[in-house]
Design a protein that fits this description.
The complex is a heterodimer of chains A (about 400) and B (about 290).
Chain A (H helix, E strand, L loop, with lengths): L1 H19 L7 E7 L9 H17 L9 E7 L4 H13 L5 E3 L4 H15 L2 E4 L5 H4 L7 E3 L4 H14 L4 E7 L2 H16 L3 E8 L7 H8 L5 E5 L5 H11 L5 E4 L6 H7 L7 E6 L5 H12 L9 H18 L6 H9 L4 E4 L3 H9 L4 E4 L17 E7 L2 E8 L1
Parallel strand pairs in A: 1-2, 1-3, 3-4, 4-5, 6-7, 6-8, 8-9, 9-10, 11-12
Antiparallel strand pairs in A: 10-13, 13-14
Helix pairs in contact in A: 2-12, 3-4, 6-7, 12-13, 12-14
Chain B lengths: L2 H33 L6 H17 L4 H24 L7 H23 L14 E3 L2 E3 L1 H23 L1 H11 L1 H6 L4 H26 L6 H4 L1 H11 L4 H17 L11 H13 L11
Classes of the chains: A alpha/beta (about 400), B mainly alpha (about 290).
Chain lengths: ~400, ~290
């Protein structure tokens, strides 16, 4: 009897849910898999804010599909394959999202894409997963990114250092998909251009001391240490211990090291010899649109990955609109809205895009962080700048070729 | 590589790291020996201690003055955690308490993340270059760390050997039933043990933080080397934990000579496996659980 009552109640609730669904049928959920905790935690808030800004633009300018709202479902991927997989599973199975923005870190992207989103046929656009390994994913055309692969960044950094007259460096990389991918591209290009690697070694995250590794690297005789790591994680320990022990004079990092937390912890006065490379948006009307809106929202427009996070969410929304909410058509629609030819759509121009899509016209989204012409693997080319520490943040000193 | 380089960049960091591991391992070995379970929340309790000290430093205390206060605070936390979660499972198989401690670890970490955020923090901004002692490079904070560890170990050993309550703890470690029959109040001894363990957690977290950075995963990440140290030295043996801590710390910093740097983290595993294979009771002949 009791069992039957329970069954009846469950049935009634489920029935009510089914009946209730059509009223919200046009509402669409978008998963935001930010790395709120973990080694890039300090980068996460502006990234999530930028993605949310895109969602706000969509909802303020007519909503998605037929009068529906786009709803962002935030999850913490923690820059960690395990957490990312959990968060993706929840987003896909419980929140029933059809597209996700994120996860932020390459290892997290690879794991959650392989085990959750690709099998479920969910579109994934990462705003900051940069490992060359992501290019190689067998992704049924479902995994994209709005920033270039580290293969470009590692190579550009190698050429920039050579051009600045640095021809002997030691490399310390975090032993994960991000660090290793960058280090390998850097090494290939640096050596091809006649540079010498006086040391090249990976390290695990989360150790309390890296002095023995650094001493071994320093023995190679280079003055410059290239660190492929996260500035809110081990990268900070490595930099601090190198500075305290005078192992190296100059330090160069990639985008993961461009952390303001790092400047705060070590102090700008001690960081005169610290430089980072990071992707930058090319000056464009679209970037101006974004900067204006992002500033108005009270955020820092120089935050790393902000533009790419905005574009990832905006592109996902465009793809959903174009596909009419049909999950199976998302990849095809994303390519259609992102690629030339078509009427150009800039950041923030949701109403215009919605109208053109409704009229059946082809559009071409020109994002704040770049044009986003995806290649066959879902990658985009990009621009980088070389930064130095200035005040509590970073200041661009040169474009990188 | 000169001999001084070897001392400065391999042996000294190894000893400092080892002493921090030792303080953590003492706590683990006490729980293991007296309460008979593997306490997985140890690392995160250390994180909590480090962050409580940070809050005090932010409020104006100097770091080393904040340490005793943080130790006292985490001692209270440890007693409360025991009352809330472990005491309740006392009569059940020990594996349940072990799993409960894993849950406590996650809860403590979440509290730290919610209250203090997830960015890396430091007790003081900037970098400290070492002083030169006849070629040996040492920072004040490293000297203080070593001194604090020595004080803690001596104090604890004297307490366990000579005080009434210390003897009661050892009695309970040997045989809880017999100790109870001889008039030892097991409940009070359990409470006392948690107070000491909590204080030691805070001390190890603080020392880890002052020698590097504080972040919400810091304790969890040193849990394995600390367990390795406790088992290496012999479960239930305070001197063993110290010896084990030093061996694990120094071995990690020396592993660079024979292994690529990314395998440094595996050193503690390898040592643990070896000792379990060759001498399962640990170097100083600890308990078999």
């Amino acid at each position: 009897m009791k069992k039957r009552t329970v069954a009846a109640v469950v049935g009634a609730v489920l029935g009510a849910a089914v009946v209730a669904t059509p009223a919200h049928a046009q509402d669409v959920k978008l998963g935001l898999m930010a790395a709120i905790s973990g080694p890039i935690a300090a980068l996460a808030p502006p990234m999530a804010a930028a993605s949310r800004l895109a969602v706000t633009h969509v909802n303020e300018q007519g909503g998605i599909l037929k009068g529906g709202k786009l709803e962002a479902v935030l999850g913490d991927s923690a820059c960690n394959p395990q957490n990312a997989t959990d968060v993706a599973t929840k987003a896909v199975n419980i929140d029933r999202v059809i597209a996700v923005v994120g996860p932020a870190c390459s290892g997290a992207v690879l794991a959650s894409a392989n085990s959750v989103t690709i099998p479920a046929g969910v579109l994934m656009i990462t705003p900051s997963g940069t490992s060359p390994e992501i290019t190689k994913l067998k992704d049924k055309d479902l995994v994209y990114r709005t920033l270039p692969s580290d293969d470009y960044q590692g190579r550009a950094l190698a050429r920039t250092l050579k051009a600045r007259g640095i021809s002997k460096v030691a490399v310390a990389y975090l032993n994960n998909d991000y660090g290793k991918g960058l280090a390998e591209s850097f090494k290939a290009e640096f050596e091809a251009n006649g540079g010498t690697l006086a040391g090249y070694s990976g390290h695990e995250e989360g150790k309390a001391s890296y002095r023995s590794e650094l001493a071994t690297l320093a023995r190679g005789g280079a003055d410059t240490l290239v660190i492929f790591d996260y500035g809110d994680g081990t990268g900070l320990s490595i930099l601090r211990q190198s500075l305290e022990n005078n192992f190296f004079k100059t330090f160069v990092g990639a985008d993961g090291m461009k952390s303001e937390g790092l400047v705060k912890a070590i102090g700008a006065a001690n960081l005169g010899g610290f430089f980072v490379s990071a992707p930058v948006g090319e000056a464009s009307a679209s970037l101006d649109n974004f900067n204006k809106a992002f500033k108005a929202a009270g955020e820092n427009i120089d935050a790393v990955f902000a533009t790419t996070s905005y574009d990832a969410a905006f592109l996902a929304a465009l793809a959903i609109e174009k596909a009419g909410g049909d999950k199976a058509k998302l990849a095809e629609s994303l390519r259609a809205v992102a690629s030339a030819p078509g009427e150009p759509i800039l950041a923030g121009e949701w109403a215009k895009a919605k109208k053109l899509i409704a009229e059946g016209k082809d559009i071409d989204y020109k994002g704040a962080g770049g044009d986003h012409e995806f290649d066959a693997a879902g990658d985009v080319p990009g621009n980088y700048a070389f930064f130095k520490v200035s005040g509590t943040g970073y200041e661009s000193i040169a474009d990188m070729k | 590589m000169s001999f001084l380089e070897f001392l400065n960049f391999h042996l000294v960091p190894g000893i400092v790291l080892g002493s921090v591991y030792a303080v953590g391992a003492i706590g683990i070995t006490l729980v293991f020996g007296i309460l008979r379970f593997a306490h997985f929340a140890h690392g995160d309790m250390a994180t909590l201690g480090a962050f409580i000290a940070l809050a005090l430093v932010t409020a104006g205390l100097t770091p080393w003055a904040a340490l005793p206060v943080a130790m006292a605070a985490v001692a209270v936390v440890a007693i409360v955690v025991d009352k809330l979660f472990y005491d309740y499972l006392k009569a059940r198989p020990k594996i349940m308490t072990v799993m409960a401690s894993l849950g406590v670890a996650l809860m403590l970490r979440a509290v730290v993340q919610v209250v203090f955020g997830v960015d890396p923090r430091t007790y003081a901004t900037g970098i400290v270059r070492p002083d030169d002692y006849f070629g040996i490079l040492l920072r004040d904070r490293e000297l203080y760390t070593l001194a604090a560890v020595v004080l803690i170990v001596i104090g604890l050993t004297l307490f366990l050997r000579h005080s009434r309550w210390g003897k009661a703890m050892r009695a309970m470690s040997d045989n809880p039933e017999l100790a109870r029959l001889s008039g030892v109040d097991n409940r009070k001894v359990t409470m006392l043990t948690w107070a000491i363990v909590g204080a030691l957690c805070a001390a190890s977290g603080f020392m880890l933080g002052i020698n590097n950075e504080l972040h919400s995963m810091m304790g969890w990440q040193v849990l394995l080397p600390m367990f390795a140290a406790a088992i290496l030295g012999g479960v239930g043996r305070v001197e063993g934990a110290v010896l084990g801590g030093l061996i694990v710390g120094i071995a990690e910093e020396m592993s660079i000579f024979i292994l690529p740097a990314q395998y440094k983290a595996a050193t503690a595993f390898v040592l643990l496996l070896l000792i379990l294979l060759v001498r399962p009771r640990g170097l100083l002949n600890g308990k078999v659980l």
